[in-house]
Design brief:
Blueprint: E1 17-26, E2 29-39, E3 44-48, H1 55-63, E4 70-75, E5 78-80, H2 85-90, E6 93-96, H3 108-114, H4 125-137, H5 154-167, E7 172-176, H6 184-199, E8 204-208, H7 212-218, E9 221-226, E10 229-235, H8 241-249, E11 278-286, E12 292-301, E13 306-310, H9 317-324, E14 332-337, E15 340-341, H10 346-352, E16 354-357, H11 361-364, H12 372-376, E17 387-388, E18 391-392, H13 394-407, H14 424-436, E19 442-446, H15 454-469, E20 473-477, H16 481-487, E21 490-495, E22 498-504, H17 510-517, H18 521-526
Parallel strand pairs: 3-8, 3-9, 6-7, 7-8, 13-20, 13-21, 16-19, 19-20
Antiparallel strand pairs: 1-2, 1-4, 4-5, 9-10, 11-12, 11-14, 14-15, 17-18, 21-22
Amino acid sequence: MSQLIPPQPEPTGAAKVEMLHFSKRFGALQALDDVSLTVEAGSFHALLGENGAGKSTLVKSLIGFYRADTGTVMVDGREREIASPRDAAVLGLGMIFQHFTVVPGMTVAENLALAQRDLGAFIDWKAERARLAEFMATAPFPLALDARVAELAAGEKQKLEILKALYAKRRFLVLDEPTSVLTPLEADEVLGRVRQMCRDAQLSVLIITHKFREVFGFCDEVTVLRRGARTGGTKVAKTTRDELAGWMMGVATDAAAIPGTQPAAPSAAVASDVAPRLAVNRLVVLGSEGRRMVDGLSVSVQPGEIVGVAGVSGNGQRELVAALTGALPWACGTVSIDGHAYRPVRSQMQRFGVRSLPEEPLANACVGKLAVAENLALRNFDRSPLARGPWLSRSAMRTQALAQIEAYRVKTPGPDAPIETLSGGNVQRAVLARELAESPRLLIVANPCFGLDFQATAEIHARLRAARDGGAGVLLVSEDLDELLALASRLVVLSHGHVALECPTAGADIGAIGRAMAGDMHDAKAA
């Protein structure tokens, strides 16, 4: 066993990091099973795998949040022992998490100062400001030192997270889903600058991502984990989406089933005298503080069409979905289904065939303590065959649940298990089974695959396409632009509750979409 590395001056330049024969068990769960991975100095290396594949366990064992049962860490060819994140910091290793860790009430300068490992009890701000100014002069993402973090956009906060690591002299970074809250332009800028630092041998990066576009657009090498084991690894230039998907899922995968690899089918032509399946006209929805979160919004969805709604989080998407599904009232405006005035109450949702798959379905579409079978019955418990006069037929409810569990491959101990005991992907499958059970005419969907693994995402995308092909209109709200481009035929971009841009997805100008998402409506509309 090697000795713990005492604090010492950090070397400069990108670090080569090797993780050799890592294994880790949590009780009966073998989270890692003899995993080895090498990130060469100056490499931009992708780590892929479904939820539960062992990605987080591997990188947290490297950084010192966990102690692996077995495994060796080599940094620049020397064996090192990392017992804590502080040990990792001494060696120049750091991690940037999916959720921001910056302090919103402080300035950029104060957040950068806090990132230092050896920060004392008192700060000589004159000297610190001089060091910060010198650092910022050559930083890949210049930010105003006196800017309040609370006032920064999401993209600027992500840049600040990376600047904190660089100011603290990290030479190797783990990036955990770093673009999940960024616009396409922000994501490309952040990853492009980081890649250039790798090219310049200033930094080595291991990025956890689920987006093939990022792997093939920015990364040099890729490693895939499945069920705690390494199933493949190669240079990105030598692999394909099909091969990576096969390593992730354990089976060969048809590219047509992979979300984001095939263009959306154009919507079928609709006769001019056919009313839109959904027509929203000048809708206004107020937020919790009385502010107009949806401000005069108009949008339509035709039968057999998926319309995507894009936007950075907080620009009215959540309030739009809440209003259309009855969770929030609207202040003014009209909504119609197939030409008939619509209000989102249970009787009208039944009459017009409106169904929804909301964000965080366990919290917003289920009763966690109730059984899977009871949750699957929430749409039709008061109708035959489940309702027999004033009584609920438990046997009919259970029969219905067993059929839907099998059809949608819901992994559950049984129909009587509380739905809160299921994984996120299986809750999503169960809710989708319920909402699609009676061939809805309108489906309102919000971030359907957030946090789900590759296979669950592929299945849900296939279900949405099938609903579209069956004649349903689908309003798909998502913060994943790749998902929208893969599924929708038409895209609406929201900014501050307004439509900033509307365009077909075929041949879409990603730059214009990004500018619209960022709020530059004039440039986006002119593009």
